[in-house]
Amino acid sequence: MDNKKIISILNQKLNLEQIYVTGDNNHIKIIAIGDIFKGVNQVKRQQIIYKPLIDMILEKKIHALSITTYTKEEWKKNNKNNIS
Predict the structure, then answer these.
(1) d(CA 20, CA 6)
(2) Domain of life of the organism in this record (predicted)?
(3) What is the pLDDT of residue 65?
(4) Under 8 Å CB-to-CB from 37, ≥6 apart: which residues?
């Protein structure tokens, strides 16, 4: 699965400020930033990201995901300027 395609799908389906996708088919790391996560617990945040990608997961085009989410304020507060 092409990382740019994942970014495109998430951009189309979700109202996110920023999306970073790294990795390959074996393990994809997603960092998503947006106020869509305000007042939402970690489990629901994960579900928000999984939902638009579920078909690709079920078709095994994506094998493993690591998802980290932030509101814009959390991102700013945590000084997440470096993507690791």
Answers:
(1) 10
(2) Bacteria
(3) 93
(4) 45, 48, 69, 70, 71, 74
Average pLDDT over residues 38-44: 96
CB 33 within 8 A of CB 67: no
- Whether 47 and 26 have beta carbons less than 8 Å apart is answered as no
**Please, which pLDDT band fits residue 26 given cuts at 50, 70 and 90?**
confident
| Tokens encoding 65 | 């995901």
Residue 7, classified by CB atoms within 10 Å of its CB into exposed (0-12), middle (13-18) or buried (19+), is middle
Question: Quick check: 68 and 32 in contact, CB under 8 A?
Answer: yes
Of 28, 38, 34, 40, give the one whose Cα is nearest residue 72. 34
- Residue 67 has which token pair? 């998802």
